[in-house]
Write a structure and sequence with these properties.
The protein contains four helices and six strands, in the order E-H-E-E-H-H-E-E-H-E. It is of the alpha+beta class. The chain has one domain: Alpha-Beta Plaits, CATH 3.30.70. It has a four-stranded antiparallel sheet.
Length: about 110
């Protein structure tokens, strides 16, 4: 018998999960919620933090230049330094628009 709490994937809770260039050497990520309750659920769960993002992407927390829980927009935003400049040789995603996918499967514990 297990005491595991029910969870829901972040992609099922968030309205928008996206990534994009933030200059030549950074990629910024936005996780935006439909309402305050969903935002607070994820924020309080601590499933999406600077540390969890670093672990998820296999990077040092020092590569995360900003991590903001932005209450007025019900959004969590963070920016990471790229391995190489956008568009340089070996850059797998020139626009940074395909880097958000790992965030979608983050499991958020549900109350109760």
């Amino acid at each position: 018998m297990t005491d595991s709490k029910p969870t829901q994937k972040l992609v099922e809770i968030a309205k928008t999960i996206r990534s994009k260039n933030a200059g030549v050497d950074k990629i910024t990520f936005d996780v935006i919620f439909r309402n305050r309750a969903d935002y607070e659920l994820v924020r309080r769960s601590k499933a999406l933090t600077r540390e969890s993002v670093a672990t998820l992407y296999g990077i040092s927390p020092k590569r995360i230049s900003d991590f903001v829980e932005y209450d007025p927009a019900c959004a969590i935003k963070f920016t990471i330094y790229r391995n190489r400049p956008s568009g340089s040789a070996g850059d797998p995603d020139i626009f940074g628009a395909q880097q958000y996918a790992p965030l979608m499967d983050i499991e958020i514990p549900l109350p109760g």
